[in-house]
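Because discrete structure vocabularies remain unfamiliar, it helps to consider an illustrative case, giving the amino acid sequence and backbone structure tokens:
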Amino acid sequence: MQGQEPDSGDPVVEALEAQNEMLRHRLDQVQRMVDDLMFFNRLGDIAEIDVVRLTGPALRHQPNPTAQGAGNPFRFTSYVFVPRFIDRDQEHPLIVFPHGGVHSNFSTGAVNVLRELLEQGYTVVAPEYRGSTGYGGGTYRAIDYGGLEIEDTYAARNFMLENYDFLDDDRVGIIGWSHGGLHALMNIFEHGEDYQVAYAGVPVSDLIARMGYKTQGYRDMYSADYHIGKTAYEDVEEYRRRSPSWNTDKYDGTPLLIHTNTNDEDVNVFEVERLIQALEAGDQRGYEYRIYQDAPGGHSFNRLDTRLARESRLEIWRFLAPHLRPARPAG
């Protein structure tokens, strides 16, 4: 009947939806390959770039626990950037740099930040943890936001120290913005003894709060059957477990710098203020924070190429340097 909604159980509709999803993932893969070339084009002058494959913990959801390969470690990709000028007979610091986005990847949008890190002498690893785009539907549906993806990022840290003998395991930092900021926070909460310093920019901090002020489409990404599988209403504790603001009791004093911005259109400033309040309530030491007032650029304010953004990043580099001692510290 004209105007009638299609039956969700219609096999034709289901086949079209499956084909559309497959096409979307294929386009993501093409975009990923194009961006790979851009990395070499834009950073090849100052960095040796590699793409490595490694493993993290087994999938949280095992559709068929008795299938061949069920329970095997999860395979994922990471990008490695090594400054060309460093003397590999000497030891050098490592920066772990997880990307942001619920479903996203490490893209050339970070080239300006990468170049500044490489110029200082930092080797950088950027993990494409479970849930990242550009690697097909299997990786996409493996998402475990605030869960095992955190261990993927930690696995990237360990991989680098095991395979690059010029890296100093006592000079490891982690930085990230947005969802990547959540990774930085949760890594030092879970593995604080293995990082000397951390930076969390406009970090996702409270998933319970986010479920209240985001759209239904955003909430659906978390309650999907291949992800958490429940709404925050149905399992508030599970969302709490994945939120930095509710895990500050695990913070052991790893030097930490936090930035937020009052006009952030993605991670509302109150989320980060809640994180800071939780740290303060626990009488924690070792962290610093700055709340920018209506800084142009909103959520991306200090990842742009503006003067303010460069000055803000210089503040970050100066915070990291005493703990990581790069060959050519900024400023």
